[in-house]
Amino acid sequence: MLIYRTRRNGGEWRSVCERVSLAFTEPHYGGRRIWMLCPGCGARKRTLWGSERFLCRACHGGVTYESQYADRMERKLTRIQSLRRKLGGEISLAWPFPERPKRMRLATYERMKEEEARLREELDRLTIEKFGWSL
Question: Residue 113: which H helix or E strand, with range?
Fold first, then answer.
């Protein structure tokens, strides 16, 4: 049972008491997985999004993620930072590429290093295009 208060556009607060059913599945590796059933469509969901009601993304009219609005430059930068974070290094491009972690295969590290170099080239090209710079 979800018990909460909500209001629309700064109006009056109203109390809501909404029943959300649970469903269980058994994964192949054992145990139990708990799902919430969306009060709007009845589909099994891991996350329900709240506003006036708690519903799945589809029932809310397609809730979007911030990353869906990122431009190409931002997506490249985010991917570079993600690679650096996986290696345990600084995410800033001002720092050198992180050293290979002890137990990482050399081929995996080299692949990540090559991907970062390719992404940096693309990011540089996009930056030059965006600001109209010439080399």
Answer: helix 106-131
Please, which residues bridge with residue 22 across strands? 36
CA 71 from centre of chain: 15
d(CA 35, CA 56): 12
Amino acid at 124: D
φ, ψ (nearest 5 deg) of residue 54 = -95, 115
Q: Residue 61 and residue 49: Cα distance in Å, rounded? A: 11
pTM above 0.85, yes or no: no
The DSSP string of 36-52 is EEPTTT--EES--EESS
27 Cβ neighbours under 8 A, 6+ residues apart? 33
Q: pLDDT tens digits for 91-135?
A: 999 999 999 999 999 999 999 999 999 999 999 999 998 888 766
